Amino acid sequence: MKVFKPGDIKHIDNLCVDKYQIPTLILMEHAGIKISEEIQKKFNKESKVLIMAGKGNNGGDGLVVARLLYNLGYKVKVLYLGNYKTGDSKINFDILNSLDVYKTNSIADLGELLLWSEVVVDAIFGVGFRGNLVQEYIDIFSMINNSKRYVISVDVPSGLGSSNYTFNNIVVKANKTVTLGCLKENLLLPTGRENSGELVVSDIGLPKDLMEQFEVSTFLITPNMAKELLPKRVENSHKGTYGTGLIVGGSLGMSGAVILAAQAALKSGIGLLYTLVSEKLVDVIENNCIESITIPMPKGLIELDKYLKNTKSVAIGPGLSTENNEVLFLYFVENYKGSMVIDGDGLNLLANLKLHDLICENHVLTPHPKEMSRLTGLTVEEITSDPITVAREFSVKHNCTLVLKGSTTCIATKDGDVYLNTTGNNGLATGGSGDVLAGLIMSFMAQGLSQDEAAILGVYLHGLTADIISEGKGYYSLLPSDIPKELHKGFKKIQKG
Ligand SMILES: NC(=O)C1=CN([C@@H]2O[C@H](COP(=O)(O)OP(=O)(O)OC[C@H]3O[C@@H](n4cnc5c(N)ncnc54)[C@H](OP(=O)(O)O)[C@@H]3O)[C@@H](O)[C@H]2O)[C@@H](O)CC1
Ligand SMILES: [K+]
């Protein structure tokens, strides 16, 4: 599903007017209708609604809601923050003036108005919000957030920056956000997700042709997209049909990482799996992954060639220490020509040895923000405040697939597209989750998916399965090892669509 930058909306507005002859006043009316319908679904006509109308068009939407609900018999009060000298908001303010609706621009009355209200319509700022908040707005937002009223935000929760930036760290916290016409990037990033409440995308009559033709480079991974990516299973098949993969990893005290990656690969349809570990770990891997073939690390790496010949994909890094593994890592990055996931200490070796020039189109890198920081030299804050841009710039520069992990994971392709994933939950914030993901992506590449496809499906399935498990287990008790065990439930849900 297409995801738009807040900056795209101005462009869409202009095209509506210039190319499709749709005045923005019509769109504003539609927006108001949709918001008022959402309120009618939850609150009856006896309800007291406080409309907080900002000075731009977001405020104008709020003024329409005030009029529509007043006409329906709701008890409506408006606290307006603009002068409304021109434009669609002025027209709606003038219409409202002709009605007997209570209005004030006295911010000093906010406390009393909040006490009076049952529902607050947050129409203070929409996609036109920029930069910092002055103290007056910080106070307004705090009062709304502390009021314990049901808050419905128009388009975006007010104060949400254009990316994951929070500027003053305060955003209106909504119970529901009705976003107008299309999904916006900032709503899908962590700050947006934390503050939007239930997210509804509302059709406000933007022309279908315009929305289909408008080019974007950010997409949300949908259930349908995941379903289409599932590797096909055929009746007349054998283990060769579903590919051979190899996991390279493990070190003393870190054998579990290989086991987790291997179990994920084995439970996601791979034809044949090898694990390559140091001799000391062979027994523990053998005991825990009976379906895989364990290769003890040979003295001469050239001996690996016989295994790699038929191996379609590799995951290198789970549990691999950075100590004494430089030669091994370099061997794979330089010689292996199939698809390869580089995870965990594989990424740290890549960064330590400055091997960025060896990253290529066959590679899927799966860093969390700290690993991304080592790879790029950016701070973790710089990465998490604008993860879409950071991921996109890296994948294009290095011609690879990049999976930047987070509560919203960004999968960036060499072509510059970014796919956002919103499955998964805080129960995944545990050592070992990433190893499972590396195993899944490697397995899907072995089964014939491209690097981008495998990353998209792997990330989506990983999070979805965690969500299914958490329905019963909650978040505290979710273990990475639960995911391979319950993977069949994730597959089943994807297959159902
Ligand atoms: N096509 C669509 O989708 C449609 C979209 N529609 C709606 O329009 C909305 C976008 O409207 P918009 O462009 O007028 O911007 P909006 O969000 O109201 O804010 C701008 C105002 O905020 C102010 N301001 C900004 N930052 C500030 C700060 N830090 N601190 C203080 N003030 C700050 C800024 O002030 P200025 O910088 O100009 O002084 C300006 O006055 C969109 O979200 C949707 O609700 C619908 O009407 C129907 C069609
Ligand atoms: K808003």
UniProtKB/TrEMBL annotation:
Q: Per its UniProt record, what PROSITE patterns does this chain match?
A: YJEF_C_2, YJEF_C_3, YJEF_N
**Catalytic activity, EC:** 4.2.1.136, 5.1.99.6
Q: Which cofactor does it need?
A: K(+); Mg(2+)
Q: Which reaction does it catalyse?
A: (6S)-NADPHX + ADP = AMP + phosphate + NADPH + H(+); (6S)-NADHX + ADP = AMP + phosphate + NADH + H(+); (6R)-NADPHX = (6S)-NADPHX; (6R)-NADHX = (6S)-NADHX
According to the record, cofactor stoichiometry and binding are noted as: Binds 1 potassium ion per subunit.
Q: Which residues bind AMP?
A: K405, G406, S407, T408, T409, G434
* Annotated SUPFAM superfamilies: Ribokinase-like (SSF53613), YjeF N-terminal domain-like (SSF64153)
A Pfam family that this protein carries is YjeF_N
Q: Where is the YjeF C-terminal domain?
A: 222-494
Which part of the chain is the YjeF N-terminal domain?
9-212
Q: How does it assemble?
A: Homotetramer.
What PANTHER family does this protein map onto? Answer: ATP-DEPENDENT (S)-NAD(P)H-HYDRATE DEHYDRATASE, ATP-DEPENDENT (S)-NAD(P)H-HYDRATE DEHYDRATASE FAMILY MEMBER
Which HAMAP family does the UniProt entry name for this protein? NADHX_dehydratase, NADHX_epimerase
In the record, the note on similarity to other proteins reads:
Belongs to the NnrE/AIBP family. In the C-terminal section; belongs to the NnrD/CARKD family.
What is the protein named?
Bifunctional NAD(P)H-hydrate repair enzyme
